[in-house]
Amino acid sequence: MTLPNSFVTLNKNRVTFFLFLLFILSMMVSCAKTENQNGKLSTTDTQGNTVSIEKPAQRIVVLYEPLLETVYMLQKQETLVGIPSKIYTDADNHKAYALMDTRIAEKKIATPGDMESANLESLVAMNPDLVIAYQLSPNVISSLKEMGIAVYMGKSETYQDIEKEIKDLALLLDAKERGEALLSFAKKEFEMMAQAVKDVTPKSAYFSWANGRIYTTTGQTSMMHECLVFAGVKNVCTSEMDQANINPETLASWNPDVIFMWNDSPSLFYENPQLSQVNAIKNKQIYTLMPMHYFNPHTLKALLTTLYMQSWAYQMHSEDILLQKSKEYLVFLYGDKIGNALFQQFRKS
Q1: Which tens digits make up the pLDDT trace of 129-169?
Q2: 262: which strand partners?
Q3: Is the model's pLDDT at 34 over the cut of 60?
């Protein structure tokens, strides 16, 4: 008996579909097996390197201060066995971190290096399963990896970097829920600040870096520039450089409405006769972000930086409200105990 062509075609289609399903299922099973066999946590760090560990890190060395802050914000400080030497040598930093960790107050956590260098023998002696850094020599990185020690290289140059680094460290330290909560909180607060000035004509702003460098400003590719944008002001510097050097004539021609300083005295501007006609100087609109530790823009403390710059630029909040919001931020970022201790130090500074 000859079967109708339509019947044959229908059955061929069914067989083809069935085989396709089997192929998909086999691929899914294969992937699941690979995942179970490897059992690794993997990501790509913000410098483009693949990072894999067998299980959540239990012993970590952090040599890059913005990511040390992230570890505390993720509430995983118990994993720390090494920190940057700067935490002990910089008085302001040590003063703040001493409130965050009694081991730092007593200088009991080892310091095998800093942001740009580290001692390989000291690192290995700490028996870490993860080293977090900003800059290490290729030889040190390869040596650590050969010994089974994972290396995560961060940079925290943009808010996108900060978000990714929080997600990555949350994965590697088994703090995914906390990481999501931090990012959700920051997103909500930044959106509220943007909404507050959406119908306002943007003020022009100039930012000067610390240590008397009033002619060194922030370009369009820096995290401080992003804070200015989040605050709803326009950065007068259009350079793509992170830190751009200018001259008095350029600053006078930009004529900003407001000037923000990094840990310096406004008198550096007010007492400069070359700049006397700049609007921000004539109108006494110069404000200083200090102490620096609490306004570090390379962490989620960019919230505090943005809050204060926006409030100063647009005369939005009283000092009491600013302090109230500062406390809210610090308590959420660090938890009740550490956050309240930091806030008491902040308000007295």
Answers
A1: 999 999 999 999 999 999 999 999 999 999 999 999 999 99
A2: 289
A3: no
Return the bridge partners of 42, or none. Answer: 52
User: Which stretch of DSSP H or E encloses residue 44?
Assistant: strand 41-44
pLDDT of 7 strictly over 80: no
What stretches of the chain show up as alpha helix (H) in DSSP?
Answer: 5-38, 65-73, 86-89, 91-100, 102-105, 120-125, 138-146, 159-172, 176-196, 223-231, 248-254, 267-270, 279-282, 302-314, 319-334, 336-348
Torsion 279-281-284-287 (CA) sign? positive
**Rounded Cα–Cα distance for residues 154 and 196 (Å):** 32
Q: How many CB atoms lie within 10 A of CB 57?
A: 22
pLDDT in tens, 205-217: 999 999 999 999 9
Which of 71, 76, 75 is closest to 84 using CA atoms? 71
Distance of CA 131 to the CA centre of its chain: 17
What's the CA gap between 100 and 334, in Å, rounded? Answer: 9
Side-chain half-sphere CA neighbours of 28 within 13 A: 6
Place of tokens 């067989």: 15
Whether residues 73 and 152 fall in one domain: yes
Based on the fold, state whether residues 59 and 92 are members of the same structural domain.
yes
- What CATH number has the domain bearing residue 86? 3.40.50.1980
Q: How many CA atoms lie within 13 A of 88 on its CB side?
A: 18
**What percentage of the chain reaches a pLDDT higher than 90?**
87
Count CA within 13 A, CB hemisphere, residue 117: 1
The pLDDT of 99-127, averaged and rounded, is 96
Structural domain of 53:
41-180
